[in-house]
């Protein structure tokens, strides 16, 4: 089937600046004439010719509303730009970690390898006709495009005048596995639809001991629940947890992917994963019955995770520290040791303490997975994580929600290898966390999110906090006036990072107030929402005294919360008396 290339005249559209997670806007914005096309062409123009002409590209995502239309548009533009073949997940479904794995691991029948991917996702943001859509580009290492590329994309969006498109190319049936071939001015063009679960399962089986996890899941003493929040993780959950590991079908919650995520908010936290939280005994009312031993949830594109025990929440900061502390013993992939560990700056320092104890290389990086990717590509980091429910390793170059769940299952299987049979009580998630605190100390930690705040007011609040930093004695005077029972602030700054691999410098990465006892207050503006601004406030207190590690987190952090809200004048600037979400 032959196609012709049409060159369409266009003009720049304001506001197409991709953030660390790509370009995210409301669906109605993406549906504007030429909006998606301009961004896609700006991306093609930012890449070197060999990454486009004759190349193999992946185009897929979390299946949210508008994905099916967007995939067809990108296929037609890829054909017109001289791309040789496009790989698409069946029904457009491919998790962000699976895209990374496909770029890195998959070979076509003719030996072809992907050089990049357009990922269609707005991650943990809601989907539907009035909700969010997003697009980002990942490179040949499987990781997000670096700033050098995203800056070029943005510059290109400001000057774009035309884009080529194969308008007469018929829509490809993305519900059927197979190859559709076309002939264009530059030769053959193929679209291959495939089930990405095959590649992803193969990769997971090369990392974890599935037999030991299967043995744990087969024990009547161990019960499990996984909630995909109607995101793309559902496309992998049945295959991995039921078919490969023998879990019961009833263990899967909301595992049918939906364009609008079932009307929910696909963000795996205690606020939005309501059904799982209730089933795990952490809801406001008792649902009756005994909760499962282990529970987990994923976000829309399956790169984030939440880990729960029976009536017990594991903070993401503790989760990555515990995985790192147990990886060598519990996960075959790491049996020869860890190259290093890393966390994002706002994440608690629990991982730092593990790194110091195990004599591992440690890195503190800005928020954004690409910073971990640089370290991994240089062979400097094996395990990494961020407080926003992202955990991963160097098996791919994205965070990986199902990987984190399998890591926890591996740790549970290892700790219980002598307890699965007989009457011995199982070591629980809570037991593992409390033992970790007893060994390394506890980092009490919480995050307050103020979503969709007026962008101007959010900027003013941050400027106020920077200005305060000019006089630490003045800051301490304010602090002591609010709470006299809190340690002094020892230093305050705006976090700046020099990448040890490429020497690049990232400035203005968050405002920090560091206290003499190791406590921290961090304020950050997040770029993951589609409108307004999100202010994130991170509050952390380190406790080494074993007699004080069992307190309720909100009680232990109450003095610092008081200081953070008053020091920042949060209510005065935002008009909010309470955060949208507390984690």
Automatic annotation (TrEMBL):
Domain of life: Eukaryota
SUPFAM superfamilies: Phosphoglucomutase, C-terminal domain (SSF55957), Phosphoglucomutase, first 3 domains (SSF53738)
Complex formation: Monomer.
An annotated GO cellular component: cytosol
PANTHER family the UniProt entry points to: PHOSPHOGLUCOMUTASE, PHOSPHOHEXOMUTASE FAMILY MEMBER
Record's keyword terms, sorted: Carbohydrate metabolism, Glucose metabolism, Isomerase, Magnesium, Metal-binding, Phosphoprotein
Protein name: phosphoglucomutase (alpha-D-glucose-1,6-bisphosphate-dependent)
Lineage: Eukaryota, Viridiplantae, Streptophyta, Embryophyta, Tracheophyta
Cofactor: Mg(2+)
GO biological process, one term: glucose metabolic process
Entry's EC annotation: 5.4.2.2
Lipid metabolism found in the keyword field: no
UniProt family annotation: Belongs to the phosphohexose mutase family.
A GO molecular-function descriptor: magnesium ion binding
Reactions this protein catalyses: O-phospho-L-seryl-[protein] + alpha-D-glucose 1-phosphate = alpha-D-glucose 1,6-bisphosphate + L-seryl-[protein]; alpha-D-glucose 1,6-bisphosphate + L-seryl-[protein] = O-phospho-L-seryl-[protein] + alpha-D-glucose 6-phosphate; alpha-D-glucose 1-phosphate = alpha-D-glucose 6-phosphate
Alphabetized InterPro entries for the sequence: A-D-PHexomutase_a/b/a-I, A-D-PHexomutase_a/b/a-I/II/III, A-D-PHexomutase_a/b/a-II, A-D-PHexomutase_a/b/a-III, A-D-PHexomutase_C_sf, A-D-PHexomutase_CS, Alpha-D-phosphohexomutase_SF, PGM
Annotated ranges, domain Alpha-D-phosphohexomutase alpha/beta/alpha: 16-163, 198-308, 317-418
Record's function text: Catalyzes the reversible isomerization of alpha-D-glucose 1-phosphate to alpha-D-glucose 6-phosphate. The mechanism proceeds via the intermediate compound alpha-D-glucose 1,6-bisphosphate. This enzyme participates in both the breakdown and synthesis of glucose.
